[in-house]
Batch of 2 targets.
Target 1
Amino acid sequence: MPQAGQVTDLLRAWRSGDRSAEDSLLPLVYGELRRRAIHCLEGERSDHTLQPTALVHEAYLRLVDQAQAVWQDRAHFFAIAARLMRQILVDHARRRNSAKRGAGREPLPIDVAGDLADAAEPPDLVALDDALTALAAFDPEGAKLIELRFFGGLSLEETAEALGVSRPTVVRRWRAVRAWLYGELSRGGGDGRAAGRD
């Protein structure tokens, strides 16, 4: 994993107009972005057409295309990358679902006591995105926490850093938003399992 200070320095230089900083940034963050892309795709179907390398490249292109981006630090950069990976995967899922003509959403089996990414079946990303959008309407930080953990693959410590809160706060909020998300998705047909790990 790249050193936080190194990435932050390059992001600041890039923001100040140093184009060489952008060139230096990709090799430094590529491995971490790829690890997070693999995490995002772990629960997908085995025949998923989007591969980790393509997901990283698409996310990175969108990251560098943000002319007004003000990267605060490494954690902020990877938080935005997580959001972009979420958008890419959801857009991909929406296109796939619309191509099925009449095929409805499949239930999202979710393990409320465990990590969302550990669900036995691939998650319905469209239903998950809809639920996160609903959560963001009244709890933006909770939605961001789910996004960082599920789509970004961030640990509890990394999530705390990205949100600027303590690890115990993240643990407490993670339990609460997971429970809300489980309830929301269960109404849409989830299977309601409750075993797993924190």
Target 2
Amino acid sequence: MADNGKPLRILHVSALNLWTMKGNAGMCCLHETLRGHLRAGFSVTLILPRYNLFNTDPAPLPIVEDNEFDVHVAACSWLPAMKTVWSLIGLLDHWPNLVRLCHWMTGWFTWGLLTVSMLLAAMRLRYRGKRRFDLVYAHCEYAAPAGYLIGLLWRIPNVTRLYGTFLADLMRKPLVGLRYPIAAGGFLVPHHLLICANDGTRGDEVARRLGLDLGRFRFWQDGADRSPAAAAGGREEILARAPAGLRADHTWVLSCSRLSYWKRVDRILRAIAIARQRGCPCQALIAGDGPEKQRLLGLAAQWRLDGGVVWLGPVPHEEIWHLMHAADIFIIANDVTNRCNPLFEAIRAGLPVVSVRDPSTADLLVHGENALLAQPDDGTELGECLVRLCEDPLLAAQMRQAQRSREALLWTWQERMDVESGELRRLLETCSPTACQPGGCW
């Protein structure tokens, strides 16, 4: 509660988009954070960009009424022109250094213009809508400057939330902050509290190397819930709604991710090809969409995977739970990190896991106990892991049982957000309206 006894009023500014998750499809972390704040009794207002910041599609996003959250739009009318520039930069792929320079420059422009757009949207809320807030909460590094400036102007605490980082392996190189200003800015923009996802990308290492005040840094894993209704229906319900070609008599190998390069769905396709060559009747169920889709379709054709892959497209989050309970195996073979929400959910669902050896998942996946692990670039070994699980139902059953011991390492979303809500309340108790200063309260 705020000092006046009213609910804590939080203004969320996000460069990540909520509308892609209507029906809970796509990344669930933003949606679950907002829901957690509502459960805590907070008042939630959300500012989102009118366009998707992370692709080159110039079309505006559909404005969908949301009964849960008070959603407002930052117009970002400059963004379609910027996306045209991004598309033109893509034509310069024969000059990689020039491409990097162009992306660096347009990154600065995008960051600055987005900050201005979000500030204008916030000012409209305050002065035209006569709204007041107790705290501003910025989602991801692109929104961090807007959160800081809003907090500075209104003399309220600002929180930054980061959903991982790619900087950990680059920190020993010179001028990291200058070469990757937006990624570093997520950490360095002044804040009263910085929350970074413990998703295997080692954001805690980055925070230490950048010299952050660790008293204001929280390194938390996301939650993962078990849906009690998900076990109902079984394969029959999935078969009734899935694309043609899904076969009930095959072993279902489930993958859930955005189809981006670093998700390495190509490794999964290669493993399926090897397993089928060995006579294993398995099918990959690929849930997700993204820029790699056409390349992956080409690989599936090249490796003669007709009947071996079922492309499900974007799947609402609740339906992912149905897939988890109907599937036989969960497979994930990312670069960078495999410690992510789909893996947490697969553990909750008791699915045997086939994955790559990855230090970030060492506490969650034990080879031969609840998972079979291959070297990252050994497609043959990954395929052999699939064959072994398909041909040994006793081993698969033992792995399902072993997943229960791993659940103790996971938070539910309720637990995760209860911890965060407590931190936000304590932050408000230590920050009086007259003492709140940029980067700290005295």
